[in-house]
Description:
By secondary structure, the protein is of the alpha+beta class. The protein has helices spanning about 1-30, 85-95, 245-255, and strands at about 45-50, 50-55, 60-65, 70-80, 115-120, 125, 130-135, 135-140, 145-150, 155-160, 160-165, 175-180, 180-190, 195-205, 215-220, 225-235.
Amino acid sequence: MSKVILTLSLAALTAVSLTACHRHRRSEVVIGGHQLVVSAQLACPDHQGRLNRVSQAADGQSCTYTGSDGEEVTLTRTMTDGRSAQDLLQAREHELAALVPTPPALSQSGISIASNQTAADGSDHETDHTQIDLPGLHILTDGDRASVRLPGVNINAAGNNAHISTGFGELKNATIDATDGAVRITSNMTDAANLDQTWMVATDAPGPAGWRSVGYVARGPLSGPLVVATVRSRAEHHHAHGNDVEFDDVRHLVGLSLR
């Protein structure tokens, strides 16, 4: 059960940190739900937080940054070229996922928590079962499984696997799936006019080229063009909410080319 509690604690921290980051940065750019406009040339400052620019294309359509721990961030002004924005990003996910080890099957929202277990002698008997119901807080544990319900956050865990989904208004489509040695984070705040999507996979073991973490932040009008920041990191002990990859800086960098 200690493994479940540890997983839940780390997962909840990640969910809350991701929520704060997304909510704050979105309010800087999207006002009144208007369709975003992408600049003809990307805004590529010398520095953005802990990111430092190392190259910039002459046509203003791309630039590259490195982070304090050697992360590589490539910012591109990406045309959809007749494809849907979702199809374009799905292809990007496949490309990036090939750079890291294929993680074990990550837990899904279908993890269920049994209300009781059958003892060895065949009788119904509650085993390591806890249920707490308070206003705004519901916790159910059964063996190595646990379910936690908080306002706007649902967590299901089984052993070292956890699935977290958030329902903070604009963040109702954010999910975190974690298992031994791997985590996947997705956040999709796309609305009727604009795409706003974040995706990341991090693994303990390095891929063929040494990458341990890959992901992207993409924003822009659904019809395109999009501003896409692709992130790759070889750093160990990577956490999306920590200091290894500055996703807050990445999102702010993306927002500089939108109005």
